Amino acid sequence: MGRKTNGSLTARARQLAARAGIPYTAALASLCTSRSSGTASQQREAETGLPGLDRALGPLKPGTLTLVAGQTMAGSTALMLSLARHNAHRGLPVVLAELQSNREQTGLMLLAAESGQDLGPAAEHAADPVSLTEAADRLRRLPLYLTAPGPGTLARVRIDAVRRRAGLLLVDDLALAADPGTDTPAPPGEAAAALASLARTLNVPVIAAAHLGPPSASTPGLGDLRDQHALEYTDHVILLLRPHRLAPVPGGPDPVTLHVTRPDGTALGSTTVRFEPEYHRMITAT
Question: Among 4, 176, 257, 278, which residue is least crowded by beta carbons within 10 Å?
Fold first, then answer.
């Protein structure tokens, strides 16, 4: 005989469904799932894995929204992928909504980052099949779950975050997460407001990538954020500055400076990391 659902569990599932805006069945399934996958998130706080950035930002506290903001080709996606892999390797369930590429493309970027192999069409050397196989096996074992782009993005992100008992939710990017379901663009700040609400409801840290427009000064700043209303719902902002983004030096260093600020512009610290665009990852500068 199937196990009956007790009244207490039913009530909790209905409350979760109402708070998170997800189907009752998804909420019930998440509560009935073994809590073993939630153990890691209870024991560990999410972090970036980049020591200088962690010192400036501090632990990624549940219930907060952090923006990763950069100009085109500044490396925002690579930073998001690095955060996803680092925390998943620590055993923290991570939901990654990579909305700028399909699932296969995201998988290839993760595989390149994990294996340290250039898998791009312009790669100078053939990838090592043994390294790729080992990296693919490691990725399959990680609690890293992808939400593919498509209609109803925020609703699917909510469902995945609940089902996977996410300890970290990553959304790349904010503009693509805004999905009004009509031809009319979503109001400014709407996606950020929804993600901030989701962070509080599920008590999980949320990080979302955002775009900076052309800089108003020599160094990009908060005033260049395309969706200024997003700052109203944000706890921290990580600004990316990549000096060589338009003309990288082949084989040369590719530093990216990460500036951490509060939404009011208060500087909290900065650090410089090394961008490896061919591997879609950022690592500690040496």
Answer: 4
Cis peptide before 264 (omega within 30 of 0): no
Give the confidence band of 142 by pLDDT, cuts at 50, 70, 90. very high
Residue 151 belongs to a domain with what CATH number? 3.40.50.300
Residue 148 lies in a domain: yes
Report the distance separating Cα 276 and Cα 267, nearest Å: 26
Residues 260, 61, 39, 91, Cα dihedral to 10°: -10
d(CA 214, CA 4): 58
What pTM was computed for the model?
0.83
Please name the residue ranges forming H helices in 1-75.
7-20, 24-32, 36-43, 51-57
Averaged pLDDT for residues 89-98: 96
Encode pLDDT of 4-25 as tens digits: 456 676 777 677 666 555 566 6
Does some domain include residue 8? no
